[in-house]
Records
---
Amino acid sequence: MIKPRVRLPSTASKGEVIEIKTLISHPMETGYRRDAQGHMIPHHIIHTFTCTYNGEQVFRADWHPAVAANPYLAFYTVATESGRLRFEWIDDTGTVYATEADITVV
Amino acid sequence: MEPCTSDDVVRLNRRAMLQRLGTTGVLVALWPARAWTMSEAVQQAMHQRIGTRTPQPHGMTLRLPPLAETGNSVPLTVAVDSAMTPDDHVLRIHVFVEGNPEPVAATYHLGRRAGKAVISTQMRLARSQTVLALAEMHDGSVRSVTADIVVTLGACVEES
């Protein structure tokens, strides 16, 4: 079961720049490798990661096979208001892995 | 002719080496800042993303270890010097890996709400290479930075 994880502060002051760390277990199979029988292992990667803050996209990443397996990504955003951040990873089978986190801005 | 003593060998080698170092030093000094020539694949991928704009090699940093035992998961941090205000912010950061089968590693879309133009991640590198990062600024300018890495055992070559 693929389970994404995110870490960010649960509270922040208005206008504060907060760091968001994300991690998801995924093979990020490049499509260039062969299995023990010599057959090509099919390409299977997450190509898009998005972070929305109360519905507005604040960060997006487009990934290619050079992103390591179990992709880790840390980035920043400004804590503007209390609400919900939603994180989505979309792979090339069309599967969407998502998680959410709430933040209180004081 | 007298056989060389080990002392002579050392001295000769040292002299030869110093001479070579001297020449290399001069060459390196004369070399333009962006002398490293990108592979055609990277140039094409760059062109698709920034068109004919010429990147300026300053205003950002790319941190990755100088040496990696395996290329499977190499930590990488890109930081752009920017106040990240509505008048001065980074739109996108691109990472190119010329030594991999595909020249583009990732594109990060930031924008004015990012707060800080710093991203950290882990890359898969097929072999020793020069990694290139570009930052597209809101005013249309482009910045660039490169970093060299030696990869002892490349990714993609074996079962992980």
Note: Residues 1-9, 27-34 of chain B have pLDDT under 50 and may be disordered.
---
Amino acid sequence: MKIKKSTLVSIAFILPSIFIVGIFVYYFIGWTFVVSFTKWHNIAPNWTFTGLENYITLFFNDQRFHIDLINNFIFLPVFVIGTLVIGFFLAVLLNSGIKFESIFRTIFLLPMAISLVVSGIIWEWIYNPTNGALAILFQLFHLQPINWLGSMNFALPAIIIATIWQYTGFTTSIYLAGLRGIPKEILEAAKLDGAHGLKLYWNVIIPMVQSSTITAVVMMVQIALQIFDIIWVMTQGGPAFATDMPAVYMYIASFKNGNIAQGAAIAAVIFVLTLIVVIPYLSTFGKINTEE
Amino acid sequence: MNSLKAFKKIMIYAILIIAAIIFAFPIYIMIITSLKSLPETLLTSSLSLPTHLDTSGYITAWNELRSGFIHSFEFTVPAVFLSVILGSIGGFALTKLKIKGANIIFMFLLFGMFLTYEVILIPLVKFMATVGLYGNIWSLILTHTAYGISITTLIFRNYYTLIPTALIEAGKVDGASTFQIYRKIIIPLSLPAFAVASIYQFNSIWNNFLFGLVLGTPNIKPVTVMLNNLNGSVLPIWNTLMAGAALTAIPTLIIFILAGKYFVSGMLGGSVKG
């Protein structure tokens, strides 16, 4: 069988990507899963198969991992709902035919253009109990300054606020694109049918931007599940694990303690959790994007 | 009715202005603190403007971060270039070359966009050590290229579906080879997609922290990792830290302010409007 030259050329255009993604995504994922079933607890490789032992330890005997899951399950809904609600609200305001819209939009998006390391450090300064911006504001109202990042109760909410600040521009953009995609006739028809104010939003606009909502939820859930950078910069999981997250534990286990199998198992758990939202999304996303 | 409308308008502006102040506040704090002297950061209100401009924070920060800056440019520029080229030729092949299973290949590549990086972190470092690239700038170039392919392919694929296939057919009739069609017809038509993909990639690679943290040996350490190390020092030198933060943010902020439209488009997966 002779393959046409043009077919070979076509394949040559896409083969490098398939090859690279094959190694860096699929092979690496496989590697991590395999290692998560082994006894590789030190720097030196140990491929002894132990079945689910590492996972059983994590879920039944590892207090730090329990704390991490609880922290992450607090972080996740607050962060996702925060970015979605504020993002939708700002998008509606931006879409109401105002002047200087692009200036406002640029300001809301600024945090998306800076590194989480940069924002983490700025927020650390804002939260600083001695002369931090928030402490100064508290003094203006004669309130006692709080050591936000050093407090068991306030450290996690403080980080959640910083992270919402970072990503809300993203959800605003997604919703703005969605709102702009609603045909004018539909809005006019709904208004003629007597839908006004909140009713118009609840019954017409929110259902019409459903695909924006789904995209935003998937993106934000994924960010929340693997949250690492901003926490590593601001608290490294402290005080006393109050802001510790699975990804932070994973990093410490694998790269500080050299417990490769344990790190791989934590990584695998995070990965499987994200698949719960990613797989349904990807199958519909793929369908939409492969229709022509 | 009219006064109600006017009231509504005023409320909208009021809320937007308050929101804008809140969103810009951390950036404002960063800039004013970066221009204060160290004693002033601790003695006067952190909300007030510097009493006199002091650049010592910038000088110290620049001396600390300069090599990180160079490293970041050294891997960001080639990785942007490579990932954009791969995305472009891949997107072209998937939309215009009638490859069997193009949709399956596309989904295969797209999955990388939703990858949790924790799950590839350990094998990534082991792999770089095995192939002898650990500690080499190419470890970061390759890594950022690999994890950029999904988004760049998506951006170009979405863009190329808008280019009429008739143009390609016309090129074929004229006897142009596939490569010539790509170079002479596709590339000139897709400059906006190149802008979107490059800007998006520059932003995410420059700002990345995690890969630099695990692969960044001292000779290739990115500026983000060096900035965080500066943060870990015992005494918080807030003016230097804020100056370092500002310096680190400058390249991406400039691009964002100049080309925000392309940046947003990349974020939304390359829904490029002309």
Note: Chain A has a mean pLDDT of 90.
